[in-house]
Amino acid sequence: IIDQAFKYLFLSFFRVFLCELSVSISSLSTAPQGRAHGSSFAHRGELRHAKRIVVKLGSAVVTRGDECGLALGRLASIVEQVAMLQNQGREMMIVTSGAVAFGKQRLRHEILLSQSVRQALHSGHNQLKDMSLPVLEARACAAAGQSGLMALYEAMFTQYSTCTAQILVTNLDFHDDQKRQNLNSTLQELMRMNIVPIINTNDAVVPPPEPNSDLQGVNVISIKDNDSLAARLAVEMKADLLIALSDVEGLYNSPPGTDDAKLIDIFYPGDQQSITYGTKSRVGIGGMEAKVKAALWALQGGTSVVIANGTHPKVTGHVITDIVEGKKVGTFFSEIKPAGPTVEQQTEMARNSGRTLATLQPEQRSEIICHLSELLTERKEEILAANKMDMDLAVNAAMLKRLSLSSAKLNSLAIGLRQIAVAAQDSVGRVLRKTRVAHNLELEQITVPIGVLLVIFEARPDCLPQVSALAIASGNALLLKGGKEAANTNRVLHQLAQEALAMHDVREAVQLVSTREEVEDLCRLDKMIDLIIPRGSSQLVKDIQRAAKGIPVLGHSEGICHVYVDAEASVDKVIKIVRDSKCDYPAACNIIDMLRYFIFIFNVKIHAGPRFASYLTFSPSEANSLRTEYGDLECCMEVVDSMLEAVDHIHKYGSSHTDVIVTENEDTAEQFLQQLDSACVFWNASSRFADGYRFGLGAEVGISTARIHARGPVGLEGLLTTKWVLRGDGHTAADFSEHGTMKYLHENLPVVQPPAGQRDSN
To answer: What is the pLDDT of residue 115?
Structure first.
């Protein structure tokens, strides 16, 4: 007994030492600064500055589906996130349910065990009769489960060297000034010692909630459930953020599961009349209405609130940290309503207007693009003035080059747009295939828009009118997310695009997202966006490809391009092509990054491949990798024995973007062109020709290295898909069965394009 007591005391002192040590360490680190007193955060992005955070765990989050026992895996992931945030220097508090469920499990076990023993003694054998369980009183369950629930939290947090403390409260503790001050003092001291308080209502003694007791004013709130407890506690302790986890994604404009129910991203105090509440969750005594009222009360008291799902298996492991990082999770309560529409509203407006755009006659879409082309030259002074504002803020020369617009560049853009306007005459609604399936049953395959496009581009303002024109020509709605570096130029160019669209009442078909939306949040709008096209650095493309779980992404992550210099190459052509391929615009994706032979290039830094380096006593610096996209006046050089070896090398180290052969041997060139599997393969021509404008497409939305849909420079054709139109006369599949009266013909018919005004474009 003495040994056990000594061991217990030692562990207790050691844990206190760890807590004090943790306080010392966290005080040395840079912790979040919190918010200004009395004001909640206005935007999600500010939540990363939250220092004092209350996490409320609803009954549906903590308990299992059978409502008897705890969801241990879910609880463990929540504890891990809270401990991680605590170790970042934040002050975390947990308001938890679960005591009743845990106690119910324990009492049921005890009752079953007791009944089985009595029945065995009474009957004299082990055969047990059917046993019925009595209805368990909630307060008794809470009394039996509270200690076990706390022991579980303590054991879980110990794994992260984090100390916890239990606090049980009732409504009376907040009505008595002395008790309320004592509670505040206790919590302040615990958080000063880097201890996580675990708070719950003392359900073993608390009376049932009064049905008419509700939230009243800023200074009074009835503690009738853990939602109201968490709100009261957050305001009392001046918490920066309250995270309320439940079994729904957040707040919907109508009960979840009903038709047209939409998740509300940001909820404002004046919006409560616009929503309809459903039933409460499967467990607990609250409901969404109680959560919203508690959230609004906390918001009024200066605490920001997010209601989110804590039970979804795919997000539970990072839902709390995602919220704190400002990601679009659940419903964020804000007192400040933005002046413009939300990104969801913008997407909806674009989709609706885009459908009208798709029904316009081709000549009308061409008129819009031509008008935009004219505006680029007529309003060039306005555009260049805005561009100068952006360039004055540029941080380096590379950024300046990407941002820069000029009169000549605007004229070139205008010419490209006019090419797109011509192509728009024969794009949407074009018949690709026509088949007579049977008598009076004819099938057509026609081109139609994809739907809603999201184009994300960095500091390239010239991208905006090009992509807008391509979307208009193809009848697609468009969401544009540009880099903040070009914000002024993008704003003016977008205004011109909408001005051109207004001539046929489709102004909203092209939207510029200028809110604080993160790219990752946009990529989650899988029910609203049909295709994402990233234009920018390889890192941007990779990030979007990872984030866009349910939306197709068209693009390429890297532009590792090659020039193979054959033994029969013309030296003059080699010098000319290689210099242009590398030096014309080093930051472009169609610039070469590797040579397959030896050549000196003026002012270009050379990195030697392993084999090339082995041939030289004094060689250039050896390349760290043969899969490097340099994006500057640098390239790698390597030696191969033959064209076939060059092809194998490019397949292994290339990115399937653009690759070139320089040779005077036509047979060698044709083999290279046929065998190399890249989006663009050139013979005796610079890799810089891999461009939509240079291909005669007018412009491009990007270059794709994908294997399906569009590949290479993606112009107007790449923004179209198809649909099948079948015209019959009462035909049924049964007519073609074994005992039917009809036979399939499947005759290919000549394709005759209908007049432009009669084309089906949806």
So the answer is: 63
